[in-house]
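User: quick one, fold this
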Amino acid sequence: MRKIMDEGLIPTSASDRYIPPARVDIRVRNRAYAPHRHDTYVFALTCAGIQCFDYRGEMRVSHPGELVVLHPDEKHDGRAGTEAGFHYRGISIDPAALQLALNGRVLPFIEGGVTRDERLIDVIAPLLSDMAAPLTAAEFEAALADLAEAMLAASGAAGSASIADAAAAHMARHFIIETPDRTISLDELEALTGQNRWQLSRDFRALFGTSPYRFGQLRRLDRARAMLREPGSLADTAYATGFADQSHLTRDFKKAFGITPKAWQALVH
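Assistant:
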């Protein structure tokens, strides 16, 4: 498996609005990923071979030229459909980035997880065309409006469902990002925002595709993944990112990313 990730290509000022996108260029043989979830949208363009994955209770298949579209917080796995394996290029996009263009509308959902929709492919393919060149903030943000419209059209959603308090959800998201070393309770978010915790949770999921708890857990795991690029023990990483111990970090890391922390270290070192 070959993996190339963009990191630090979007200016740090963008982190106040959204988590920077990450691109991958991967070749896979046999089974590659255990069941896991992302709190981002994942768009994966199949370049060669057959890509198979289980998603929303059914096996899905993507052929060359087709686009896999995974909604945030939906469990899936991944494997090759033949012994020849497969090759794909993908990009993970924070729902908060898409909300810059959606302007508070509910996140669109693409049925089935695989599409040939030309509008979507025409937006995503240029972002993946040159993996050696950095993806700049200007290039990425220029694509967001077209991506939002293409997704709304492909999903058939009007995107007009009511959000009770978008400002409270954005405030909660910002606080979670700024507090990456511990779990934040709904009690704390309710006190911070002044919004009922259950309404806050509903609005948060509608805007960002996952729960406040899950979003915070993924931010701590993102921080752990970044720390594992440098020398240091798993125990120290677990402590610094608010996990009870090394075993809890290992368990949640594998659930989130489909591989163990040690396997991740082997990929990046």
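User: anything notable?
Assistant: The CA atoms of residues 40 and 94 lie 5 Å apart.
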